[in-house]
Design goal:
37% helix
Amino acid sequence: RDIVYDVYMTVERTADTAEDWKLPTRTLTEGGDCEDLSILALGRINEELGVKGAMMVGRVKTDAGERWHAWVRVGDYQYDPTIGGVGAEYFPLWEWSYDFVMAVAT
């Protein structure tokens, strides 16, 4: 949880202008959207804890409304490096493994 919170607090969130998933090194320098911050969190979790999580994509419902979103799942737990997850309801539609996400990210 500390890793995801650190990403949430320190990495700039940017508008989703293109659907290219960024490698963690790009996100650290350029900032990113929900997919990019999730990929960064996955990379750090793997690097620091030796655990391979997954990136979830689906709908999230908050006080601001409902929208498409990406977040992180590790075991039975879900973490959100973009909005923090407090008071949010998550409706996952897709789950992509750590290995797949890192292979696709540029």
